[in-house]
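Researcher: Next sequence.
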Amino acid sequence: QPEVGKPMRNCYSLPGPDFTYGMYIHKRDGGVPEAIGHWDAVKARPRKRVMPRDFVTMGRGAVDEGCTTAREFALYYKFMDIRCKDKEILRYGCKIPPGMTFGKPSRPSTPFFDIMQHRYKELWMEHQRARTVVQHVVKKKVGILQQCFPRLGEVRENCTTFLRTHPLPVKEESFWHPQRFEKV
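Model: Next structure:
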């Protein structure tokens, strides 16, 4: 029986030090040193890349040759196989420049001292001051133009603006007469 306040002890004995838990693979089992020291590297097989057909150029050539029917175009495409010359189509699988990671240029490192010295805040403040100066200059120019041409900024009055400023009077309805007796 178990002791009071203690769990029951396991009565199974563990196997010896030469016992291997799990499957033993003779070919690859070398433990951690082999896993760290010998990586399974797969060598890429060179594969000849075939560029896609350039149907635009082939179509132009067929028209220049005088092809008019679908059969003539098909025969022209069969005998004049023109391929695209643009290398950008096969950019995946080509050699990647050293500064690229998965086809994207790597981000420049964050200038830590600019962050510590509040350089970005200063740049933003300078930008805001320049923007305020430009707005002030534009307001001055508009004011001068308003003095020279007083009707420059005014909107010509049309029917819509007139109705907004002078709404139509509300028609008073008589609620005590039914509508069928209005013409009587």
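Model: The mean pLDDT is 78. Residues 51-81 form one domain.
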